[in-house]
């Protein structure tokens, strides 16, 4: 199954993946209208520490504890992808607490949880963070 992998040796810490993620999930076709003057809430985020930069995102675990802990049944694992149904999410944030990678976050309005769904809900064809990483530090590939 394809997953997003990050090579922190190549990450420049530019945060472009965060902007591309927020844009891809905005539902708009104009990046300026989607992001200008707004606080972005991407489903991927770059952590910086001691000169090392790396992107944190959902690992789409094979046995996801977030899915098992969701009291509303809003999280599911299908075809190797952990998905969240915002209509079912009750905002208890148990998934946020149990995710070992810190990859699930409250939405901008704080009512439901949000996470990376590999841009399956939009027409990018591949995750937008991967598509626009200028240094190829983020890849979407299958590994053994």
Topology:
Layout: E1 2-6, H1 16-24, H2 31-35, E2 45-49, E3 52-56, H3 65-69, E4 75-78, E5 81-84, H4 94-98, E6 105-106, E7 113-114, H5 128-131, E8 138-142
Antiparallel strand pairs: 1-8, 2-3, 4-5, 6-7
Structure report:
The protein has 144 residues and is an alpha+beta fold. The protein folds into 2 domains: 85 residues, Alpha-Beta Plaits; 58 residues, Alpha-Beta Plaits (2-Layer Sandwich), CATH 3.30.70. The strands form 4 sheets. It has a two-stranded antiparallel ribbon. The protein has a two-stranded antiparallel ribbon with strand order 2-3. The radius of gyration is 15 Å and the shape is globular. The model has no long low-confidence stretch (mean pLDDT 91).
Residue windows where pLDDT falls under 50 for at least 5 positions:
none
Helix content: 10-25%
Question: What form results from the Cα inertia axes?
Answer: globular
Mean pLDDT score: 91
CA-atom Rg in angstroms: 15 Å
Structural class: alpha+beta
Distance between the termini: 9 Å
CATH secondary-structure class of the largest domain: Alpha Beta
For the report, how would you describe the main beta sheet? Answer: 2 strands, antiparallel
Q: Assign the CATH architecture of the largest domain.
A: 2-Layer Sandwich
β-sheet strand percentage: 15-25%
Continuous helix count: 5
CATH topology of the largest domain: Alpha-Beta Plaits
Strand adjacency order, main sheet: 1-8
Number of strands: 8
Order of helices and strands: EHHEEHEEHEEHE
> What is the total number of structural domains?
2
